Amino acid sequence: MIKVKDKIIIVEGPQGVGKTTFTNYLREKIPATDLYRLTGIKDKEETGLNKIRTKYNKLLEYMANCKDVNLLFDRNFFSEEVYGRLGYKKYSFTEVYEELLAKLDKLDFDIYLIVLYLEDTSEYEKRLGGRVKHQYQKFDIKSSIEQQEAYLKLSEEVKKKAKNIKVIKYNAGNNENYEANIDKELGFLFIE
Q1: Residue 125 pairs with which residues in a beta bridge?
Q2: What is the pLDDT of residues 144-170, one digit of tens each?
């Protein structure tokens, strides 16, 4: 009998795309899965770069040592890179990002980067309309669309650079068959 490798699934995408709903559903469908919801750090200044480098290096060490469990992430260091590219930080994260990407790519897991997007970007207006502004985040349609473009571009780059990371772009748009569509298109993730 062939043993299937444990999975690392990282779900990325802009504010309002539906990462929470999506990751909650995957968590329920994939046996033996831990779900992690990550945020960046409060320090957006140059001093934050070393803090965030340490955070994600420690996280990758932890991930490498996990056995007999699937790891599901609602955001990871990919968001840090996207936010850096969009100018949300006062430092460039790219050098650290490249190091982290290389380390992740070498882990002995089946690794998936799932980038959620909305084909109909007008849906962001409905999804973000009722959100309360957080002191560290600004919810608006324009920034979500800019983030979406940056995540999609980043996903293409990862496809070219990484050997062990499978990149999936998934339209998380509203429809009556949302869960059935996930089952149909991503059901292979549920197999143990």
Answers
A1: none
A2: 999 999 999 999 999 999 999 999 999
β-partners of residue 37 are 74
Q: Which portions of the chain are predicted below pLDDT 50?
A: 1, 135-136
What would the pLDDT profile of 83-95 be if each residue is shown by its tens digit? 999 998 899 999 9
Task: Spell out the domain ranges in the chain.
Answer: 7-190
Phi, psi of 113 (to 5 degrees): -110, 115
Q: Which residues of 2-35 are buried (b: 16+ CB within 10 A; e: fewer)?
A: eeeebbbbbbbbbbbbbbeebbebbeeebeebeb
Check if CATH label 3.40.50.300 holds for domain 7-190.
yes
Q: Taking the model in full, what pTM does it have?
A: 0.93
